[in-house]
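Q: How would the structure tokens look for this protein?
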Amino acid sequence: MSSDKIPDLSAGDLLISEPFLLDENFTRSVVLLCEHNAEGSFGLILNKPSILKLAEIMDRLSFVDKEVYVGGPVEQNTLHYIYQGKKLLEESIQIGPEMWWGGNFEELALGLQSGNIDIDDFRFFLGYSGWAPDQLKEELIESTWIVCQNALDENTLSYTPDELWRKVLLNMGGDFKLLANYPLDPRLN
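A: Here is the predicted structure in token form.
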């Protein structure tokens, strides 16, 4: 892709890994871009579940039996979260229509404990995906990522991790429908 055809990225955009990407951190991944500016980019992989539950990694949330995802290969000792619906937490950053990133952790813990916050509206991540200034631009020029803008909706987090990559491409239509059906290993086809 030439640099003049690169879309202006913003929070809420989805980065879909091209089907030939062999980097095990990002194979068939869908990354939700949470921040993109001159200092770099920050995103969370939406479809890479870990083997851990929230109760296993956070003493404060030991009563919560919720799956945790791998947000990316950077700082996997940090916890991040997104949620859908209306704004529930102070300091949350809106990244799409009714999609929020982060927020006051103590409020979250108390809301979950009291039952005032529905855990099913949240997705938790260990680590994140990060890019230095212009690094993501270079990866887009190399066609590492397919950008899907304005795609966040109430279904985004409802797809299973195995189907999300394919569903986003199918919903984009056109030539992306062909990519959606591309086998993980074409030699086995």
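The domain at 12-27+39-182 is CATH 3.40.1740.10 (VC0467-like).

The chain has a mean pLDDT of 90.

Upvote if useful.
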